[in-house]
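FORM 7B: Structural annotation worksheet

SECTION A. Query
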Amino acid sequence: MRWNKAAACLLLTVASLAAPAPPAVAAEPLTEILVFSKTAGFRHGSIPAGIAAIRELGAANGFAVTATEDAGQFTPANLARYDAVVFLSTTGDVLDPAQQTAFESYVENGGGFAGVHAAADTEYDWPWYEDLVGAYFHSHPANQTATVHVEDRGNASTAHLPQNWSRYDEWYNYRTNPRSAAKVLATLDESSYSGGTMGSDHPITWCKNVGSGRAWYTGLGHTDESYAEPLFRRQLLGGIQVASGNRPADCRPESGYTPLFDGTQASLDHWRQAGPGGFTLTDGTISSQGGMGLLWYPVRTFENYSLKLDWMMPGDDNGGVFIGFPDPQGDPWKPVDLGHEIQIDATDADPSRTTGSVYSFAAPDAALRDAALNPPGAWNTYEIGVHGQRVEIWLNGVKVNDYVSNRNIANGYIGVQNDGAGLDISYRNIRVKTDGPPGVDLAHGVRGVASSVEPGSLHLAANATDGDPGTRWGSAYADPQWLRLDLGRRQAITRVRLTWEAAYAKAYQIQTSDTGRAWTTIYATTTGNGGVDDISVAGAGRFLRVLGTQRATQWGYSLIDLNVYGP
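SECTION B. Predicted structure
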């Protein structure tokens, strides 16, 4: 954000700078690469087209290309000349033990590897190479058109691609899934073609860190036509840049994240705009218009979590990611005053108000930030860790900030900013991972009974306990109304969380019972304001009831989720 709030906000001070960090390593120059295409098995007819395409990419992007099938080039002295080595549809056993040792040392000490297509059909008796390439080839069906789902849209090799990319190629099945050791960038939709054997998780492009070096691989590139295809050529260029260290990339394995915005309108519908302006949705990307406002996720608050998202500014623009704030109730300045903004603005003169900063509180490590940052017009990835009052920020996989806040941010909402007209920013692929569930949800899957259901709707009581943020229980438009759960046996209850839809209760009670007839109130409020009510209680019973006595709107009571936890 640009700082233009009222004078009271100027009382914010820089409370801390990032903890000392090791010296930054600047983006590596990309001056020369080696393209290796030796085959000891099947030989792909597209190899000459691939070499020609890489030469053209080099000429257009300022790096020289040496193409060879001579394994004798794999000596320590010769490999040291190159920023990356491309295995272009190599097959079989192509290096002897001394050459393998030289290549291992090259990569482990900072060299780059880019594998294309049959690079996965290479060196089956070399365990280190299996780790490098990520997975060995298993089989393939006939060439056909399939849909590639782009999973990481911040990586230089995939950021330019549509979220779902339909193209013709030879589609490899792999012996193992590389996800546990590599960052998967794109997967195949096996329902879009025949002959896939890996199921719902079929990686086709990925990258990983190997020692001090980096490996990138794509299963695409079987056909001659691939190398004349602009989208694939740009992917290939990005892969070479990532492998060589010329472009920042987060190649750490990623698992366990839940998408909050996955590029679909259905997921965007769960978000809410506070303040002016908003966002438009195109090809899985939301782009700002007007402001200064905030798009926030009202379904639930988060604590002890890692938040990841991709962002892009086309020029000297502005935006930010907000964490740890209470329900803004339509006011985008409440998150400024009560939470924290993780800033996106590479040109602000104040180091505490620039990309990677905790806005007005903690500057990033400037050298690390500058080395990790992709320029305007290119996508970047943030990971923001919030654990209690501690905030950690990674930019494209590099930790650039570590700050302990004195604000109450441990449990709160998250959002993304649209700063104002002409201060353009885009976001995509917003996902979160918590350190673990807050306990076993005793209500999950319990089919509740309700006093009523919204007339003409399918907003049944069971929707409040199905764990799906896209469903809800809605009542008739009258007071009182209740939702009752049978937990199966008497349970100690220490926490109840209610996630309200826009129609919420101003006054309600939480009650327990052993019989379902006589009720004990363990919580009551007459000042409910919607959003998420996360309530510590002390009670016990087989039955639990939420009794609404006063609606806050003309509509009924509307609960997205009802969660019940024991000790």
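SECTION C. Observations
Residues 2-25 have pLDDT under 50 and may be disordered. Helices lie at 47-61, 76-79, 97-108, 127-133, 230-244, 265-268, 333-338, 366-372.

SECTION D. Sign-off
Analyst initials: ____
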